[in-house]
Amino acid sequence: MTVKPIKGFSKLSKEAKTEWLIDNYFDNPEESLALLKSYWHADSKIQKLHDEFIENTLTNYYMPFGVAPNFLINRKMYCLPMAIEESSVVAAMAKAGSFWLERGGFKAEVIATKKIGHVHFVWRGKEFAKLQAFFDRIRDNFFEETADITRNMRARGGGILDIELIDRSDLEPNYYQLKGTFDTRDSMGANFINTILEKWSNIWEKYIATAEELEEEDRKSETIMCILSNFTPECIVRAEVSCPIDRLTEGTDIDPERFAENFVRAVHVARIEPYRAVTHNKGIMNGVDAIVIATGNDFRAIEACAHAYAARDGQYRSLSDVSVENGEFKFWIELPLALGTVGGITKLHPMVKFAMQLLGKPSAPELMQIIAVAGLAQNFSALRSLTTTGIQKGHMKMHLLNILNQFEATEKEKAIIVDSFKNRIPSYQLALEEFCRVRGIAVDEFVKHQEQ
Ligand code: MEV
User: Fold this and answer.
1) Are the C-beta atoms of 320 and 238 separated by less than 8 Å?
2) Is 433 a catalytic residue?
3) What's the rounded Cα separation, in Å, for the pair 133 and 248?
4) How far is CA 371 from the centre of its chain?
């Protein structure tokens, strides 16, 4: 079926939008409509809030919200809120929390909190030195003429830290930048920075039009765009765990020296081999994103930045690192995290407010520390499984319920089947066979029925 384009969709009521969608894309209109409506919030005020977060909201999209308790970070106990759909991530996180709780907990430290933004512009003059002299003369105006916009942020101890003129004509003919450095305190700062950059562009174009230092034909700058950079290599946090090697495998029959050796090798592989590094860092981001989402932060920005940072020396590498010296195992991570604990949806989304309360209403730097710890903890759990039992044992144990739910197993069937996998690793095929055995049907018959 070819659907005709629609004009003015965003102006339609929610009901009209839904009707159009159902009529044009679904051959089970009643069922689809009922599904959309079943995800509406019972409280119409909360639903309206969600409707207004974005354009064209039709319903809500659920994700599990779980917690990982027992996180000791800088001698303070936390229970971490996590919004994530992947079966084994919260379980792995909780395991790492308890493991390190018994070994002194996590240490975390914010190294820097600078954010960056640019006015990207074209200038067709020849002598950059003259442009620089002009910039130096009017530099204070960039601070003075944005004083109204920065007043509140300055009152909170932040604001504009610096502005520089940058020559990027080596990359692209006539390409230059005004580069701003900012401290946005507890806010992520995107709106603050972008507002200032747009004002700077006006200031720059206004003054350059009458710049005495420049030839008349060079008194023109064309702004390409004004935008913050989500690459924040100077907004960095470090998290670390350490313990004597022989405590690493306590309570197991694994040799600690061998465990440490394999662990170090696994991290080393992720430092030198990009194919492994991407998966290694994906595991780190399992922990990071889950809290970033639960606390209403922008996981796309965090992801983009983390991966750019992982490739900062020209090769994509592991974000975590490890050492074993004098019998001491040390495992750490350094992550760029531009986060906000005020602004955005932090004071609007009921579950975000809940997550913030759970974390004790942290400042942005404290949240940076918590999230870096989550990344490190998740990475530790993944590497511990990968280098010992293999990842599938824990992963499939958690995923088994998804498979059984897909088969529409009853609670009783689920309990029997889960029990039957107590001492063996489940797989889709094994779960299917076990399910059919318990239900008393032939596997072929059930598969055929599922495919219909
Ligand atoms: C799965 O979501 C994450 C892992 O693949 C991470 C890793 O391999 O380190 C288990």
Assistant:
1) no
2) no
3) 60
4) 9
Atom of ligand 1 nearest to the CA of 385: 10
Q: Which two tokens stand for residue 98?
A: 């308890």
pLDDT in tens, the chain (452 residues): 689 999 999 999 999 999 999 999 999 999 999 999 999 999 999 999 999 999 999 999 999 999 999 999 999 999 999 999 998 999 999 999 999 999 999 999 999 999 999 999 999 999 999 999 999 999 999 999 999 999 999 999 999 999 999 999 999 999 999 999 999 999 999 999 999 999 999 999 999 999 999 999 999 999 999 999 999 999 999 999 999 999 999 999 999 999 999 999 999 999 999 999 999 999 999 999 999 999 999 999 999 999 999 999 999 999 999 999 999 999 999 999 999 999 888 889 999 999 999 999 999 999 999 999 999 999 999 999 999 988 888 788 888 999 999 999 999 999 999 999 998 889 999 999 999 999 999 999 999 988 88
- Residue 438, C-beta contacts closer than 8 angstroms, at least 6 positions apart: 413, 416, 417
Ligand 1 site, CB within 6 A: 86, 279-280, 282-283, 286, 382, 386, 391
Contact 237, 335 (CB under 8 A): yes
Nearest protein CA to atom 1 of ligand 1, as residue? 283
Nearest CA owner, ligand 1 atom 3: 283
Q: Which residue(s) pair with 110 in the sheet?
A: 237
CA of 419 to the centre of ligand 1 (A): 26
Q: Is 444 a catalytic residue?
A: no
Task: Report how far residue 314's alpha carbon sits from residue 311's, in angstroms, rounded to the nearest whole number.
Answer: 5
Ligand 1 centre distance from Cα of residue 320 (Å): 14
Place of tokens 């039957």: 420
C-alpha dist (Å) from residue 294 to 111, 182, 238, 319, 349: 24, 26, 21, 22, 10
Going along the chain from its start, the domains and CATH numbers come out as 1-62 (no CATH), 65-109+238-388 (3.90.770.10), 115-228 (3.30.70.420), 394-451 (no CATH)
Distance CA 397, CA 426 (A): 6
Å from CA of 278 to ligand 1 middle: 9
Residue closest via CA to ligand 1's atom 10 equals: 382
Q: Distance, CA 96 to ligand 1 centroid (Å)?
A: 14
Number of H helices, E strands in the chain: 16, 10
Q: Which two tokens stand for residue 304?
A: 């983009």
